[in-house]
Amino acid sequence: MLDKKGFTLVELLAVVSIIGVLLAIIIPVSINAYESSKTKTEAIFIERINKLIDDYIALSASDFNLNKSTYNIVRKCNLSTDTECEEVKAYRVSDNITFNNIVEAGLIDENDFINPKNGQKCNLNSAIEIFQDEDKVNYFRYDLACISDANRNGDYVYDNVTFLNAGIE
Questions:
Q1: Residue 163 and residue 13: Cα distance in Å, rounded?
Q2: How many CA atoms lie within 13 A of 132 on its CB side?
Q3: What is the phi/psi pair of residue 119, to 5°?
Q4: For the segment 56-89, what is each residue's pLDDT rounded down to a tens digit?
Q5: I want to staple 78 with a disulfide (CB 3.0 to 4.6 A). Which of 39, 69, 84, 138 is the partner?
């Protein structure tokens, strides 16, 4: 009689095909989960930058000079319903503000300006446009080249408002 010590070819093929089917299911799911987490991390990165700008504006608001000759019409909406909107005139702050100002104010380290989605270091010389309405509410928008298409409207990232048009008084 023959002593069987090993697997037959059919048994090996069955195991290999089962492993192949499992990999065909697991790999795309893993890649999608990884990309989704990078997108969510980028959204958190954008929220953090927006919070830093808000903090900087709160610390420096008394130092800003309003340019009453240029303004933008800004549509503010209730974030919970997104239906109750009002349009207000927001006057541009004439001061030149960049992300370097936020770093110099000690609110963040320049090494933290790295987009987690693509690993690209953000340009700290990117301008931040700050506007203020007649009720002294501040709004901002900025062009941050290292942020991808998430949360963007054209070339700018906006502070929960829509800039409709520019005007001169």
A1: 62
A2: 19
A3: 75, 10
A4: 888 887 777 877 777 788 777 766 666 677 788 8
A5: 84
Please report the pLDDT score of residue 147 as a whole number. Answer: 64
User: What distance in Å separates the CA atoms of residue 146 and residue 121, rounded to the nearest whole number?
Assistant: 7
Question: Would the pLDDT of 124 be above 60?
Answer: yes
**What would the mean pLDDT of 2-19 be, rounded to a whole number?**
87
| First-residue to last-residue Cα distance in the chain | 104
Domain range for residue 143? 9-168
Report yes or no on 94 lying in a domain. Answer: yes
User: At which residue do the structure tokens 């909107």 appear?
Assistant: 85
Residue 1 lies in a domain: no
Specify the higher pLDDT residue, 155 or 101: 101
pTM of the model: 0.69
Number of structural domains (the chain) is: 1
Amino acid at 85: C
